[in-house]
Write a structure and sequence with these properties.
The structure is a single chain. With 745 residues, this protein is α/β, with parallel strands linked by helices. The protein has 30 helices and 15 strands. The longest helix has 50 residues, at 259-308. It starts with a helix and ends in a 10-residue tail after the last helix.
């Protein structure tokens, strides 16, 4: 069914069938998504990574469907019940639920009320009643009375027949299809507090008596309600009106208004309440959970991408500062490659207040190590430490900035950190991580489990396998978009390079340690177990600075070196001259170099690389400074305008660090003067923004912020009509939906 699958995916993703075929072939050959996106544009029609991942995942879903289809056909065939008509229906099923509906009557099942009734010989009675052609069901039933078969009276016989009919209705494909559609369109999410859990579950107060249509409920609200159910605070139902479901089944199965029809009515009500309703509610729960997970994972992946691609300071001598009060501030000095040169502790804050001594230590370390920038973690005592360092009179050229330390403590206690710094404690490792994050966020953050970085929305509630796959795709995409320095990259960073993985990454580091720096990309082939396929996939994303071949420092793939050499030869110059001289490059007629396998997309990429070899796609680093005099929530006043950094983006708004140890929320309705449905349309992670304080709740440690020009509504702005049951706009109701610890310090 490959051709049918290719056509289906092409139609769903609005791309050409030959593009799908090309992508599937490349993936089956072992090519990675970044490699295909960058170096096989001719074959795929220049599909980007998002489209490639879409093809990959959808094809896998269809293959899984085929695998299940074959298992079902085999099972029914072994039962000797497979007819040509049934086989045709099974082969035509396009969803897993439709496939399982067809299999349900043949699926081996535990003992049910219907199987017990069949064992008593009541199936013929059930069949006659289900035909609804008689008014004398009692006479029919009396013929099945048998003490030996535990059918003592007429009612027992009729009950057994109804049990069989109920199962027949439950297993009817058309009935299930109709009821499934009803659940999809009309089901309501209804949550209520479990009696006695009101105080314990106060954070779920908004959902103590909540109802909302399943088709309307946003992902974050559904995940919050499900978490409340899992914590046994809420009871939750996802159901349509029962009368609607019963009426729908009656229209499907009731033919006659007679005594037999009345028996069928009793059976169908039982079928819905006992069999169909639980089954369809489970499906609705799973389906809505998958949708909510997908949305939450998309938010997480996009946030992670923005964080990984945050502007790097670059290769500078950096001082990393992990601030603190009683335990002091841990100081480390790093060289331009991130190597630890020196470390100590100072105590400029409460309770020691050794300000003069601490200042002398900082100045001495700055001079001794040629420090060019200071990175201060944004945790406890961050603002006090920043104020202290800025007051030391350091050179004006010194970059001083507060950086996120989210996850640094996890890194410092990790096996990776212990292997790198076996002789240093967790405080030194944490400070090193803070300093390196300023130099190159990507290179440092790949050492962490992405979930520990804290930029997700209900990341612990979503499907963990799907989350891991999406985040791995995101990290790999970012690493390969930037490129990796072969001679300085850590094992963790190399792991995410296209075609490598942990084993080859470790082998590369081992080879580098034993043989010194790589002189060129070709030397990669000397690495143990790194064969031609891995070299093809990885080489273009690895950079060798100051190597024997200038092209090795660029994103030009070694397979295209001959093209560049041909260009240089035609211009009677060297490759080095071609890379340096724009006038020479402007004389190149790209059409001359088009072949059956190399087209204009690859040639244009080559020219861009020759113009800016190994260019970094990330923005330039900009130092950020919080508002002086605003260090605690108690310093905040309504109407204050403050600088801030976006630390997290969710579907309901963006969290902003304004330097008071507690992030504030800019609700989606406060992000712009005109209503936006998606906060990601307005802000990006780590973006520097100006916000206005609109509400402060000291007791609950909650801050409401606005990015509107007129946050207090003195001018008219567009606002999306409030949905039924949408919480009001005050601080408490907006923030009470937030389950988790977004922005907490």
């Amino acid at each position: 069914m490959s051709q049918a699958h290719h056509n289906k995916v092409a139609n769903e993703l609005n791309i050409k069938q030959q593009q799908v075929v090309a992508v599937v072939q490349l993936l089956d050959e072992g090519a990675t998504v970044p490699f295909i996106a960058r170096y096989r544009k001719e074959r795929t029609g220049s599909l980007d990574e998002v489209a490639l991942i879409g093809v990959r995942d959808r094809i896998q879903q269809l293959r899984d469907l085929d695998s299940r289809r074959q298992a079902i056909l085999k099972s029914i065939k072994e039962q000797e019940k497979l007819t040509a008509e049934l086989e045709e229906k099974i082969n035509a099923a396009e969803t897993m639920s439709a496939l399982e509906d067809l299999y349900l009557p043949y699926k081996p099942k535990r003992k049910t009320r219907a199987t017990v009734a069949r064992e008593k010989g009541l199936e013929p009675l059930a069949d006659v009643i289900f035909e609804q052609n008689t008014d004398d069901v009692e006479s029919l039933a009396s013929a099945y009375i048998s003490k030996d078969k535990d059918v003592p009276d007429i009612e027992s016989a009729l009950q057994g027949a109804r049990d069989i009919i109920a199962e027949m209705i439950n297993e009817d494909q058309e009935v299930r299809k109709k009821i499934r559609g009803l659940f999809e369109k009309e089901a309501m999410v209804v949550s209520k507090v479990i009696k006695g859990k009101e105080e314990e579950g106060a954070k779920y107060k908004d959902y103590f008596d909540w109802s909302e249509k399943l088709t309307n409920i946003p992902s974050h609200r559904l995940l919050a309600i499900r978490r409340g159910e899992r914590e046994m605070i809420l009871s939750v139902d996802i159901l349509p009106e029962e009368s609607m479901a019963i009426h729908m089944i009656e229209r499907q199965v009731i033919d006659q208004a007679n005594a037999a029809g009345e028996q069928v009515k009793i059976a169908l009500k039982d079928a819905y309440k006992r069999l169909l309703k639980p089954s369809m509610e489970t499906e609705a729960r799973l389906g809505s959970k998958r949708s909510a997970d997908t949305e939450a994972i998309t938010v997480f992946a996009e946030n992670l991408k923005q964080l990984l691609l945050a502007a790097p300071l670059g290769q500078k001598n950096v001082m990393g500062v992990d601030p603190g009060f009683r335990t002091g501030c841990k100081i480390v000095c790093l060289n331009r490659q991130g190597k630890l040169l020196d470390h100590t502790a100072i105590y400029p804050n409460e309770p020691q207040k050794q300000i003069a001594q601490a200042g002398q230590v900082i100045k001495a370390l700055v001079k001794q190590n040629g420090i060019e920038a200071i990175a201060i973690g944004n945790g406890t005592a961050s603002r006090e430490t920043e104020q202290f360092i800025r007051g030391l009179g350091l050179p004006a050229s010194m970059v001083i900035a507060v950086v996120s330390e989210s996850g640094a403590s996890i890194y410092s206690a990790s096996e990776v950190a212990r292997a790198e710094f076996p002789d240093h404690d967790v405080t030194v490792r944490g400070a090193v991580s803070i300093g390196r994050r300023m130099m190159d966020p990507l290179a440092e953050l790949v050492k962490l489990d992405p979930k520990s970085i804290g930029v997700g929305q209900y990341q612990h509630d979503v499907d963990q396998t799907a989350l891991k796959n999406a985040l791995d795709d995101t990290v790999m995409g970012c690493v390969n978009a930037v490129g990796v320095e072969l001679n300085t990259a850590s094992k963790e960073l190399l792991t995410y390079v296209s075609g490598l993985g942990p084993v080859l990454a470790e082998n590369i580091v081992k080879y580098r340690n034993e043989n010194g720096p790589f002189k060129d990309r070709a030397s990669l082939k000397n690495v143990q177990r790194l064969g031609d396929k891995a070299f093809e996939q990885a080489a273009g994303f690895l950079r060798v600075r100051d190597g024997s071949n200038r092209l090795d420092a660029s994103a030009v793939h070694p397979e295209s070196y001959t093209i560049v050499k041909a260009m240089a030869g035609d211009l009677d110059c060297t490759v080095e001259q071609l890379m340096k001289d724009k006038e020479l490059r402007d004389r190149i007629n790209l059409k001359k170099y088009v072949t059956d396998t190399v087209g204009m997309p690859t040639l244009r990429d080559i020219m861009e690389e020759l113009d800016k070899p190994g260019r970094d796609p990330r923005d330039q680093f900009e130092a950020f400074q919080f508002q002086d005099g605003v260090q605690e929530m108690s310093d905040l006043k309504i109407g204050m305008q403050l600088p801030g950094i976006v630390t997290n983006i969710t579907k309901f708004g963006a969290f902003v660090d304004i330097g008071v140890h507690q992030d504030g929320l800019v609700h989606v309705s406060q992000l712009a003067d005109k209503y936006v449905s998606d906060p990601a349309q307005v802000v990006k992670l780590q973006q520097h923004v100006k916000v206005t304080v609109t509400e402060v709740d000291l007791s609950r440690k909650r801050i409401a912020l606005s990015m509107k020009a007129d946050p207090f509504g003195k001018t008219k702005t567009q606002r999306k009509p409030k949905e039924r049951n949408e919480p009001s706009g005050d601080l408490q109701s907006k923030l009470s939906m937030l389950k988790g610890k977004f922005g907490n310090r």
